[in-house]
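Deviation from plan, reported transparently: zinc ion complex.
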Amino acid sequence: MRNKCTKYESLFTFADAETFQKHLEVCEDCREEHARMAAVSELIKEVRPSYLNKKRNIAKLKIACAVFAMCISATALGVVNLNSNISDTIKYGTTLTAEDLGLPVDAYGFVMVE
Ligand SMILES: [Zn+2]
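Because the crystal trials were delayed, the predicted structure below was used instead.
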């Protein structure tokens, strides 16, 4: 039994197209190898678009998640910043009255204006 030709890879990589083609004509092993490579190459071409599509969809999903998270945090921060009762509760554990803020108040807790 003769040894299988091992020149395919080196010829494919280093030889010019003409040398490579000539060797393919005389060497059955390399012809088979070349056919197999062509089949794999076809398969990759076939699969590539759906693979890229999948990647693109994952990227879109990530962007959507980021935007969603930003909206949620912006809303939460906006509510806390605009509603002083909530931020007072977070900072001091209770809502602050006008008296707590050091303003002059009457018996009902209303700010006195002179
Ligand atoms: Zn060969």
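Residues 20 and 107 are 101 Å apart (CA to CA). We consider this an acceptable substitute for the interim report.
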